[in-house]
Amino acid sequence: METNHRIIIGDARDLSSIPSQSVDLVVTSPPYPMIQMWDETFASMSADIKSALETGDGPLAFELMHRELDRAWDEAYRVLKSGGIMCVNVGDATRKIGEDFQVYPSHARILSHAISMGLQVLPWIIWKKPTNSPSKFMGSGMLPPGAYVTLEHEYILILRKGGLRKFRTATEKQVRRESAYFWEERNQWFADVWSDLPGASQALDLGMSRKRSAAFPLGLPLRLIRMYSVYGDTVLDPFVGTGTTTIAAILTARNSIGVDADPKSASFIDTRIKAIPEIAEEIISQRIADHLSYIEKREQSSEKTQMKYVNRTLHCPVMTRQETGIRLYRPVSVKKLNEGEYMVQHELYSSSPSSIEPVR
């Protein structure tokens, strides 16, 4: 299997180089309005935003920032196929401008525009990020009523264009079956609160912390891509940044397009892409080991569950008939075609029973 990946240095508000209805899934995290680290970025988009920030008009600055993001969402809607999904990771902002402290609810503003575009709003995910800092509490400490609830979560909004995606041909249905996930992954991934992300999937973050890069962890797009697309689909990130969505698309055998205004993005992503084959085996092996560990615990539990089904490609028991069709593909080579364009060769992962014994 071959997949193709393109990095475009450009503006998320103008995706004219991408044909309409050519993308199956959007996974992205935009600059967060009213988060101070993004003030300069938004101010460069509009003199009115810069003026609103300088005069301390927080609500106006917030609205003007979102009007710029609206243009990006309009473009993402245009390139998305009917039945396609858009996943937007965004955090609200807490900020004091002048004497006034308040929350700027970006997730609600994005949902409002999504509805106006005609996107269907599906149940979203609360991504809860552990925070143990004693200084996380805001306001007047123990004195009512001037203390504030801590804001230590972000949102992953799930939006759909048109109705449920249709798989009509025999080939499409077969690819869908091969792209299935394990029973226990379904139970974990489709919970509406995520309080952790897989540690093993951080191997390709190459030392980039969220604080330094504003990038989400690799486990987040890996999970979303597996949840909402199938092998060979095209995944778009219009704010690709350090390329985390691109890396996740390669690891999951999807095609991808990444767009970013920063010319430095392309060279950083190039370094990350070249490292992929070295760690792909580890990521797949860990996924299988996690599955076998779950099966072993299930069999040893008081329920004494008898596994009725076997995935004969992965040589492991599974809970349901739908899981018997799962196939895993690993990237084995990366070829750079042109600047910002890559072709990745994937091969079917097949293991002997002895090579995937449960972790005890």
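That was protein one. Protein two is written in the same sequence-then-structure order:
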Amino acid sequence: MLSPSIAPSGKMPNRASPSPLLLMIVGGAILSICMGLRQSLGLFLAPMRVDVGVSASAFGFALALQNLVWGLTQPFIGMAGDRYGPRPVLIVCSIVYALGLLLMSLAGNGAALDIGAGILCGIGIAGCGFGVVLGAVSRSVPATRRVQAVGIASAVGSLATLVIAPFGQRLIDQAGWQSAALAFAGLALVLAPISIFIGGKPVSAREENSVAAAQPTRAAVGQALRHPGFISLGLAFFACGFQLQFITVHLPTYLGICGISAEVSALALGVIGISNAIGSYVTGRLGARHSPRQLLVLIYLLRTLAIAGFVACPTSSISTLAFASVMGLLWLGVVPLVSGLIARMFGLRHFNTLFGIAFLSHQVGGFAGAWLGGLSYDLTASYVLAWAAMIVVGLLACLLQWSMDDRDCAPYPVLQSDAGLSR
């Protein structure tokens, strides 16, 4: 069990700070709604194609843009979280997220879709997603339990997809996609009052009591970008984004081509969510006892084999749900492992910033998976090339993660002239 009374340094935490248990519950709830909404957006492609004539490539580009904006803004939002604490960042970004979904509900052309579902939702997810929330959770527990705590928060953060995806599909069927998008906007706005309970103070150099805490942000970023292990970790993260975003955006359409009903498609997304909760929890437990690097190799390999097996076998309702179960178990298990490696290698003072930089690679991969998946379908009337690309990048990720140097990294000494940069 995780102790709610011990701070990362081993000292008693500030009484005004939320307990680790509360942070895991609140953080998990925020992640659950945020990611549940995002992972259900693929349900809107088919009705928007019929109603307003949005093509698969245009829809895929909007969600690809979302991933790219998410990735590009994540380091800067992470810096804001490191400096001001998680609460104000979460509240502001939840409002931006809701505005993006509101604009999506009014979209009658590609530009409105790009701005709403693409840019605004991308900024909202960057603030309400993994970087800021997992940074708060990581700082609330001892280092030996950090991966486990992040795994629990990630597991809780996967549960809402099981409800939001079928709920969204039912609203689309009964009230239309615009009403469903408005309901999604309302759910995003709920994140603001929930975020009040997560706490608002950043970690100071005095609290962490280490050279890494006093290290300037510029020096910490430069050190990470010169570390071969950090580069390998980021490049492998590209494959994760490529694979998962293609499935999130294009799986419902692919299943429709194969004659699978929309209800089964929505159920598959829900199965991914509940399986992801189990997989994230188990991965967090394993990451506290075994090498996170080796576990990442195994996840990338098993995920790629599952994709190859799904494509090779005839598509049916049973094979779809089986594929969703396996992929769900391996879906976000990489997050507690990647966050644990970054925290162990570089410390927590600049965790949000460094995780954001690594996550940028993930989101570039998500951009490629969403957009190129739609583009390949529009050009060839088939998703064969996209599935093949997912297998190739998955195998490359295995090799990169296998060769990664994951040794702890001693921070550069802080020069007196750089002291002002650490703020």
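Residues 20-409 form a domain with the Growth Hormone; Chain: A; fold (CATH 1.20.1250.20). Keep this in mind for the problem set.
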